[in-house]
Design brief:
CATH superfamily: Aldolase class I
Helix content: 25-40%
Oligomer: single chain
CATH architecture: Alpha-Beta Barrel
Number of strands: 8
CATH topology: TIM Barrel
Largest sheet: 6 strands, parallel
Number of helices: 8
Strand content: 5-15%
Distance between the termini: 30 Å
Shape: globular
Structural class: alpha/beta
CATH class: Alpha Beta
Strand order of the largest sheet: 2-3-4-5-7-8
Amino acid sequence: MVEDQALINRLGFNNHGSDTILNRIKSNKKLGMLGVNVGPNKDSNDRLNDYLIGLEKFSEVADYITINISSPNTENLRNFHDENKLKELLKSISEKKKQLKTEIPIAVKISPDINENQIDLISEILLENDISAIIISNTSEASRETLQNIQRHQKGGLSGKPIEKKSNLLISKFYNLIKGKIKIIGVGGVDSGKAAYDKFLLGADYVQLYTGMVFQGPNIAGMIKKDLKELLIRDGVKNFTEIVGNKTVS
């Protein structure tokens, strides 16, 4: 949806399976940091165990593993945001890490469509389970009201500029609760240095992008770095970490 700088994705976790992905990773020279996103099969009888299989399979090749509980395209996956289900899942992940004798960092990727009560509960549960990072956020099932494209009500997860404000608000709320004890990876509408800067101000330690790259191409990363550097110099900031959570910096 070009006029909205947005995408609607309804593909889910479509791939050729974890064994194929693992072999592909092993057959390529590693460059940079590798994060592996794991989730359950849509027709699985034991979704929790699917996460544990993913953790075990990729813990030796990944730098961190994302526990994705928020894809809108796997039916009822977001039920893992429920307090008891999330506690059970993260406790099982912790026990599996001990069994595997691995210290691999775990990130949890959440939905942008959660309510106020869930923000408090999720923060508490993540802190209790030694989670390294929270990814805020996945795509939205809502946020369609202001879109211009006639396909705006298509089923699927909405990403890009239309969810930027929702993502930023969540980043701010989680930052105020976790106070730097868990790293925040900000996602949603990052297509410029200014967009990244805003997320850092609100509490993000890192940013991720996808939709912006679709519209602007892989050179967007260099452009964001250049723009971000200029903004930091403008405000007399030597390192972007100085502005994380500092809403007074403009």
